[in-house]
What we know:
Layout: H1 6-29, H2 34-76, H3 82-95, H4 97-122, H5 125-140, H6 164-177, H7 185-189
Helix pairs in contact: 1-2, 1-3, 1-6, 2-3, 2-4, 3-4, 3-6, 4-6
Amino acid sequence: MFRFDFADTITAAVLLAMVAVAAVSDIRRRKIPNWLTLGGMAGGLVLQTVLHGLAGLLHSAEGLALGFGVYLAFYCLRAMGAGDVKLMAAVGAIAGPALWFQMFVATSVTAGVLALGLSLATGRLRQTVWNMAYIVMELMHFRAPYFRHPELDVKHGRALKMPHALAIAAGVAACVLLPGARFNLSRLLA
């Protein structure tokens, strides 16, 4: 039986609104505005504190740290832009660490499907598969892949680019809206 939970509904609405605005901005301008990401981080901390007290604040801070830390590693490898790092930190601040991880997995799957489609559409599938194999080999040897192949840097002019906020928005939406999704923040904080 469906049970309405005010805190989860507010949290879901804030998450969906934030990632939708980020996706539109990333598609149109290839930038995610700081007012949105930093506001999302601060708003997530405040929202969860208001809804769940000190436990909510700590949960929100853990989610922010997890989202920032994981995506900072991608940024350091030059696989993501700074806006993507801040957006996933904001998602973590709003959702907390356990839900953030679910959203991260859904985002990763979505990003893979979108990247495959983009590679096929641009006729670069073979090059993309080679790049992925090369990246894995370089990382296994603890080397940054972009040192020998600068086109693997997301900021390089020849890099195949995709608005990652679109994948983030789809991953978050899947976790929040799909039947059977386990979006229940109140249960995690109980």
